[in-house]
Design a protein that fits this description.
The complex is a heterodimer of chains A (about 525) and B (about 100). Chain A has about 525 residues and is an all-alpha fold. Chain A is built from 23 helices and no strands. Chain A has helices spanning about 10-30, 35-40, 50-60, 65-75, 80-90, 90-95, 100-105, 110-115, 120-155, 160-205, 210-220, 225-230, 240-250, 255-260, 270-300, 300-310, 315-365, 370-395, 400-425, 430-450, 455, 475-490, 495-510. The chains are: A mainly alpha (about 525), B mainly alpha (about 100).
């Protein structure tokens, strides 16, 4: 099969241009409505549960999960399905443990919630550190991944791709703030779900719309058929799989750019609806992606998929080209590019909010800054982080950064989640305890990943890894809780304990929520 | 007659609201863990079972993988039903007492 992937493709560029044009119009509309801090960080709390559910799904269904999992299934079969399952299970946990109290207690960022009854300064600084660690790792992974994807899809040089992504993304965030990024995510989520559904239906039509036939055809593939429907090496070490599962499940509850979206809805009930809708869309997505991957394995074939990209990331696009010609591939490629843009925009806004809302306004200015000033500082922080993102993307060119998403989730699970959860439900959680938890969690997760096979052996070329597991969550997460609990018990904070009782009206009934 | 914050927070009604909420949450979270990690352990320790066919071409592995996602969604749905009908009602009642 001849593919036009890798050469600049008129249809793709046209679709992409339409998307960028349309979303910049949305940004212009949003910019006119964005004057106050509440509007810049939280879209003026004007987003409904359903819209937020779509935005959350959009933020979460990144190019990595779409192209990456489809590719993984097309090459490795069943292992890709196991991976896909893990990506969904964090959402129910988010609903049960965090979503509503988070919305009731916080204002713009998750540090607001942790700092609610504890001493502001230390918590804000620790929370900002936790946020920036996670967001940096996630952003580097997205920027590097996107650079290579865009180069593969359009044939544009890597550095140019990075700058284009950076600049368009900065437009959304700088001018339109959260309102713009929310609507960009919603648009993108609709396009992604629509595009993948069409891809699925076109593919299934070749098998009589019977997934069973797909699995049958997979088994008949020469050489690899038998292995494709069985688990392979992904869960070779169950301890590793459990650790990864913990990171994916509870890491979601500590991802700053996801948690930030909960403040865009008016109240806790809408927050609840957001998660319900998001779980539905994301669940649907991860159910159908593996089938798309299997169909690609049959119709396109492993050889062509790996020839275009060793990692298999182009499987979905090649399938789109096969089934719908260059126009359809162009559409899917544009959607993938849009996906990258939207996710990086969300990450940038959350990093900027840590710098401006948590550090500058809450720590330096002790909460006193005019609306206009808050928005101005936020915008400066956005530019700083945007430039840093572009720079890091170019710096890390060609590096194996797949581990960085795992790192981001591990730090989120170990650094951010324990402190957030403890501060909500445990009366005796003290300032020192929360800070310790954040720092111990973040640092231990980072250190253990550096000592793990993916970095110590694959990147630093040492002989054997010092820490045997690829994902540190099973160690760093409990460690963070234990340290937080011990330190809290050693340094009781009477004032915080008293406030815990008073704040219950707000936590559970939503009275006084902002 | 309006009650003080202290009175409400210590009232039996409020305390039962809080404890019910966390009981429901922890039970559902526990079930989620059982479903997901049960699946992972099955994949790790009993690959033969997953390779067994159910139907003409599909095997248990594929069915269970999808089932985990569906069950996770069902647990979410259960929480939303409980919260919308039971929890919200109690919240409204308590809010009236404050006014």
């Amino acid at each position: 099969m001849q593919t036009s992937l890798g050469t600049p493709n008129f249809i793709s560029i046209l679709f992409f241009g339409i998307f960028v044009f349309f979303t910049l119009m949305v940004t212009y509309w949003a910019a006119k409505k964005t004057k106050t801090a509440a509007e810049y960080y939280a879209a003026g709390r004007s987003v409904t549960g359903f819209q937020n559910g779509m935005a959350l799904s959009g933020d979460y269904m990144s190019a990595a999960s779409f192209l990456g999992i489809a590719g993984m299934v097309s090459l490795n079969g069943y292992d890709g399905m196991i991976y896909a399952t893990g990506w969904l299970v964090g959402w129910p946990a988010l609903m049960f443990l965090i979503a509503e109290p988070l919305r009731n207690l916080g204002k713009f960022t998750f540090s607001d919630v942790v700092a609610f009854r504890l001493k502001n300064r230390p918590i804000r600084i620790a929370g900002a550190i936790g946020t920036i660690f996670v967001v940096l790792a996630y952003t580097i992974a997205q920027m590097v991944g996107s650079g290579s994807l865009i180069k593969l899809m359009f044939g544009i040089p890597y550095e140019v791709a990075e700058i284009v992504v950076g600049c368009v993304m900065l437009c959304y965030v700088l001018f339109g703030g959260m309102l713009a990024t929310t609507w960009v995510q919603i648009i993108k989520a609709c396009l992604l779900l629509f595009g993948v559904t069409i891809l699925l239906l076109l593919g299934l039509s070749k098998f009589g719309f019977n997934p069973g036939e797909v699995y049958g055809a997979v088994q008949n593939l020469p050489a690899i058929g038998e292995k494709m429907l069985k688990p392979g090496g992904l869960v070779a070490n169950p301890l590793d799989a459990i650790s990864l599962g913990l990171a994916l499940m509870l890491g979601l509850l500590g991802l700053p750019h996801i948690l930030m979206r909960f403040f865009t809805v008016p109240d806790a009930k809408e927050a609840r609806k957001s998660v319900a809708y998001a779980t539905t869309f994301i669940g649907y997505f991860y159910c159908i992606i593996p089938i798309v991957g299997f169909i690609a394995a049959i119709l396109v074939g492993k050889d062509i998929i790996t020839k275009v990209d060793k990692g298999g990331n182009m499987a979905a696009l090649l399938l789109a080209e096969l089934l719908g010609g260059t126009p359809f591939m162009g559409f899917i490629a544009a959607v993938a590019f849009a996906t990258i843009l939207a996710v990086v925009a969300g990450l940038t806004l959350s990093a900027a909010s840590a710098l401006s809302h948590d550090i500058f306004v809450s720590v330096f200015r002790k909460g006193h800054a005019s609306e206009a000033e808050q928005v101005k500082v936020a915008r400066i922080a956005v530019i700083i982080f945007g430039v840093v993102a572009i720079g890091l993307g170019i710096l890390f060119k060609g590096q194996n950064v797949a581990f960085m998403v795992g790192l981001a989730f591990a730090i989120a699970a170990s650094g951010n989640f324990p402190a957030l959860f403890m501060s909500i439900i445990w009366k005796k959680c003290s300032t020192a305890g929360a800070v310790t938890s954040i720092l111990v969690g973040s640092l231990s997760a980072t250190l253990l990943i550096i000592l793990s096979p993916t970095v110590w052996v694959d990147i630093f070329h040492n002989h054997a890894a010092i820490f045997p597991l690829k994902n540190p969550a099973i160690v760093s997460l409990p460690l963070s809780f234990i340290c937080g609990i011990i330190v809290s018990l050693m340094t009781p904070d009477k004032e915080a304990e008293q406030k815990f009782e008073d704040e219950k009206l707000r936590t559970y009934l939503g009275i006084g929520a902002e | 007659m309006a009650k003080s914050v202290h009175e409400i927070v210590n009232s039996p009604k409020f305390k039962s609201l809080v404890s019910t909420r966390w009981t429901v949450s922890f039970i559902l979270t526990f079930l989620l863990f059982v479903v997901y990690y049960g699946y992972i352990l099955l994949v790790g320790y009993n690959k033969e079972f997953l390779a067994q066919k159910i139907g003409v071409y599909t095997n248990y592995g594929i069915v269970l993988g999808i089932l985990v996602i569906v069950l996770a969604w069902i647990l979410t749905f259960i929480y939303v039903l409980w919260a919308n009908f039971s929890y919200d009602k109690k919240v409204e009642e308590l809010k009236k007492e404050i006014k």
